[in-house]
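dude i think i finally got it to work??
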Amino acid sequence: MISKDILQEVLIAALSTGADFAEIFAEHTDEKSIYMIDSRVQNISDRVISGVGIRVFKGCRCISGCTTDMSRLGLLACAKKVADTLSDSPTISQVCLTERIFGDIHPIRIVPSSCKNQTKIDLLKEAYFSAKEYHERISQVSGVFLDVDHKILVANSEGLFAQDRQIRTRLVINAVASKEGENQTGSCSPGRRMGLEMFDLFSPKEIGQKAAKQALVMLDADYIKAGTMPVAIENGFGGVIFHEACGHSLEATSVAVGSSQFAGKLGQKIAGEKVTAVDDGTIPNAWGSINIDDEGHPSKRNVLIENGVLKSYLIDKLNGRRMNMESTGSSRRQSYLFEPTSRMTNTFIENGPDKNEDIIRSIEYGLYAKSMGGGSVDPVTGSFNFAVTEGYMIRNGQIQEPVRGASLIGTGAEILTKIDMVGTNLERGQGMCGSLSGSIPTDVGQPLIRVSSITVGGR
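look at this
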């Protein structure tokens, strides 16, 4: 993307007013999305993102700038502006870059950008019409096929020079079921750090049918009666509660400035003893996986909570300085336009010791949250409110009638201590996570778990 000689020259210019660290992040990203509604392809969008972000540190002070001019003169001009903003004493520095190749554990067999649009449209149509034709009550379907080819380069004044290429594919189907003027929705949206071979794992037909079935189930459901009760939360995207209500509070972004509910609690018991939670960016072909983070550090498997005890935070370079701790390979950014900070990759609760059937049998009266949706979280207090998109009542240890309108209300610290049973069917779901450094792909996950008591909101 940029020659090593130019990178070294630009880094030296960025250091010229007294910075003790300088970094260049360059990217070239090709994104394609195909949108389908009303039984036809409505839009095909191609987007190219190309540019460079330059940062300098002086202690814990950070100055950054960006440019789309990737010529030598354009990069030097950006570096000079960043350096002039720091405006410390003039210095003369030397930088010697050594390229590092970390390898790629995410093989791609069919690169989407090399395939014709019609190939992708055919996959989208198969999923779309399998939802549309699933039942006469399916009134509307929309679908999106997304593929991304994200190339990055990172170089810094400590001599690091590394590159990575991230290819991702995702198919999203949303279905609406209608009856007597009432509508309910269902969705299915698998994604992987893979090419079109992803559809060897996920049948487009089954993706569409799953979305339609969820909408139909909820259409015939009655509203849940609100109250405090035990809840069994299913695997996959059920892990969104840990991700949002707890995971963000373990990022150095909030820990370093003392705004996290878990700041200063390393080595303390913060969860039930059956809870082991991990952030692992090294899972082959997983949606949130990376070979290197956006500061050029190799991705790691970071154990955050082990048997209920807080073991680690997720740390980027700048916040690591503030905390006097080393990076955990967790620095991420949406694009060169954002400053990177500590973020999750694939975050999940590990399998536990309990049989899934025992978890359900243990609940005399409660809620089975089969599928979770969006919600809101206060990152300072950990207070959350999440919608249950597909839920069922549990009576006398048996899953019974579907219910709609349920939401789970609580705090991250509270829910961790009340997870008292953890099953064995770990799966992960895919999402886009937003924070200070923009929107990035992340996996969330868990096996079936039981929360002994939580407030369930209703209509």
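Residues 333 and 340 are 5 Å apart (CA to CA).
im so relieved honestly
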